[in-house]
From TrEMBL:
Keyword Flavoprotein: yes
Keywords carried by this UniProt record: FAD, Flavoprotein
The keyword Flavoprotein is assigned to this record: yes
Cofactor: FAD
Domain RsdA/BaiN/AoA(So)-like insert: 192-355
NCBIfam families per UniProt: aminoacetone oxidase family FAD-binding enzyme
UniProt protein name: FAD-dependent oxidoreductase
The species this protein was found in: Syntrophotalea acetylenivorans
InterPro entries the record matches: BaiN-like, BaiN-like_dom_sf, FAD/NAD-bd_sf, RsdA/BaiN/AoA(So)-like_dom, RsdA/BaiN/AoA(So)_Rossmann
Domain of life: Bacteria
Database matches in Pfam families: HI0933_like, HI0933_like_1st
Length: 419
């Protein structure tokens, strides 16, 4: 192609949306992706099903990002969940909305989302260059003038940084964008894994590896005080715990661990029963099944894989008959079921994190355009920014929305001669 007006660095959700919108708005657009194909990380999101967005209304949607969510209001006002759904359906991709407002391709295949986006880029005239390693941005007198890629400087009027975070580095998200942004003067909030499995201090969880609990109340304790809780699904692993509720709580856990605080997880295995109702349930079971071993009684209360763990941690002999359980032992068992404690010793690495916490400080980016407040002609979008939410389609919508806004605004600035 002739010299591009706009170079987009990174071919993930934000980058592909930014490139396509810039081209559709009339700008000569070059998309640089260092992997053999764009969208590798997008292809594994939502366990390979690609949770594109969530149907929540804007106020609730923004709340999932915490205090930083206010930054997204401008982008969401221009391009939000309904707009994204219309965008994909207009391109022929059918969508479905599932439990919790989560929106997926009807096929359940992330590959269909990728094929739709790649076809669209071709249709709107984006030049896509793969295996393209960007080394640095060219900034002259506070203004972006080009990009050095594969040893060659490519002049341009604007560039959009959409390199993603540092999670799942095998897909190409290796944190390059933080270095580029820092070189352009931006402050980088310390990055750390988010929506990441947690590790426990002992081997108890390994004995229950792959056990899935669907209706659990999990409380996160920092220095003995509850800081957050969630209800839903949890999965034990060889090294610790994962699953939706653990991922939701993991951001606070990671930050507490980084500050050398004591972090624990308190699991209520019977959240539908308060302590008194649980005690009455135990009394009924003891009365009806008193001749059975305690281990047999517990299998009516707990998954089989948890029974030996419960017996070990409560000190109850497996072969004692249930009728021999005294009141003190019964109360101890009830407390364990309502407050199964796990000490959190660490977290899994970036390679297992769904998103990256931290990143480019949002106050240095204009939320109306996504242009850098420090370097003219430089725009930033997607996970590179210090914006993180829970699972449920929120993070991907933020990537698409900020990408859409960056692409549109960069193209407008180029066409109006501002760049």
């Amino acid at each position: 192609m002739t010299q591009p007006d706009i170079i987009v660095i990174g071919g993930g959700a934000a980058g592909m949306m930014a490139a396509g919108q810039a081209a559709q708005a009339g700008a000569r657009t070059l998309l640089l992706e260092k992997m053999p194909l764009p969208g590798r990380k997008l292809g594994i999101t939502g366990k390979g099903r690609c949770n594109l967005t969530n149907s929540a209304e804007m106020r609730e949607f923004i709340a999932h990002f915490g205090p930083s969510g206010r930054f997204l209001r401008q982008a969401f006002a221009r391009f939000f969940n309904v707009d994204l759904m219309d965008f994909f359906e207009d391109l022929g991709l059918k969508l479905v909305t599932e439990r919790g407002g989560r929106v997926f391709p009807a096929s359940g295949q992330a590959g269909d989302v990728l094929r739709t986006l790649r076809r669209w880029l071709q249709e709107v005239g984006v030049t896509v260059q793969t295996s393209a390693t960007v080394e640095r941005l060219v900034v002259t007198d506070g203004r972006l003038t080009g990009v050095v890629c594969n040893g060659q400087e490519i002049p341009c009027k604007a560039a959009i940084l959409a390199t993603g975070g540092a999670s799942y580095p095998a897909t190409g998200s290796t944190g390059d964008g933080y270095r580029f942004a820092a070189a352009a003067g931006h402050h980088i909030i310390d990055i750390r894994p988010a929506l990441v499995p947690l590790e426990t201090a002992d081997s108890v969880t390994g004995r229950m590896a792959d056990l899935n609990l669907r209706n659990v109340q999990a409380r996160l304790l920092v220095n003995g005080k509850k800081v957050a809780e969630d209800f839903g699904e949890l999965v034990f692993s060889k090294s610790g715990v994962t699953g939706p509720i653990i991922l939701t709580l993991s951001g606070l856990a990671v930050d507490a661990l980084r500050s050398n605080h004591k972090v624990e997880l308190s699991l209520d295995l019977k959240p539908a029963l308060d302590e008194q109702k649980l005690d009455r349930r135990l009394l009924r079971d003891l009365d009806a099944r008193g001749k059975e071993p305690i281990s047999s009684l517990l299998r009516g209360l707990l998954p089989a894989a948890m029974v030996p763990v419960c017996l070990d941690l409560t000190g109850l002999p497996a072969e004692r008959t249930a009728a021999t359980l005294n009141a003190k032992e019964r109360r101890k068992l009830g407390r364990w079921i309502k407050d199964f404690r796990l000490e959190i010793s660490g977290h899994r690495p970036f390679s297992e994190a769904i998103v990256t916490a931290g990143g480019v400080e949002t106050k240095e980016v204009d939320p109306r355009t996504m242009e850098s407040r420090l370097t003219e002609g430089l725009y930033l979008a997607g996970e590179l920014l210090d914006l993180q939410a829970e699972t449920g389609g929120y993070n991907l919508q933020a990537a698409f929305s900020t990408g859409w806004l960056a692409g549109r605004c960069a193209a407008e600035a180029v066409q109006e001669g501002d760049l």
